[in-house]
């Protein structure tokens, strides 16, 4: 699997921007104390935590789409959406998060099932990551909590059958598969809010 220079850059920028957005959000940083926070040791810890949880969840979600698309003979590349990344950072500073960092674009002829498989790969990866983070609760509870929470939220959100989200593509391919993945994903995402 190959990555162009642009794709590597876009993945890195999206990973760092999401890490910053969520670090600002979780630390409840206000614009008034932004500079002090960015030069503090608390920033380093918050940024690392976000990169390891949100960042890894995002990266592996997108790479899962790419892997399956390439498996089906597609040319697939991630493209960052710099406008939405800037809005995510601004939102994190304002106390709310909406992150749409970009997407994997692919081209070539595909069946509805192949499109469905590509779309399903991202949310299923987030569910698997939530399971992988859970045992860390005994070693580093905050990392485990954040990793489980973020990945369940990513899976549930992406399974919504609207707009350009994965759920719409999966539902178009197979309603039974959609329901089998979307219902538990959304229920787990709702429960993750209260973790």
TrEMBL record:
It comes from Halanaeroarchaeum sulfurireducens. The keyword Thylakoid does not apply. It comes from the Archaea. Keywords: Membrane, Transmembrane, Transmembrane helix. The chain crosses the membrane at residues 41-61, 82-105, 117-138, 150-167, 173-194. InterPro entries: Metallopeptidase_M50B. This is Metallopeptidase.
């Amino acid at each position: 699997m190959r990555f162009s220079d642009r794709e590597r850059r876009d993945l890195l920028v999206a990973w760092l921007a999401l890490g910053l957005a969520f670090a600002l959000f979780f630390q409840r940083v206000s614009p008034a104390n932004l500079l002090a926070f960015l030069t503090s040791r608390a920033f380093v810890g918050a940024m690392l935590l976000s990169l390891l949880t949100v960042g890894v969840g995002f990266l592996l979600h997108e790479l899962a789409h790419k892997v399956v698309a390439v498996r089906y003979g597609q040319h697939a590349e991630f493209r960052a959406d710099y406008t939405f990344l800037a809005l995510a950072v601004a939102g994190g500073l304002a106390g709310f998060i909406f992150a749409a960092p970009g997407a994997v674009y692919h081209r070539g002829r595909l069946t509805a099932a192949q499109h469905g498989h590509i779309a399903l790969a991202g949310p299923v990866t987030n569910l698997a990551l939530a399971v992988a983070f859970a045992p860390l609760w005994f070693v580093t509870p905050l990392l485990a909590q954040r990793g489980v929470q973020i990945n369940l939220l990513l899976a549930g959100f992406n399974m919504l059958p609207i707009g350009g989200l994965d759920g719409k593509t999966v539902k178009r391919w197979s309603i039974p598969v959609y329901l089998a993945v979307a219902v538990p994903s959304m229920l787990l995402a709702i429960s993750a809010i209260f973790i």
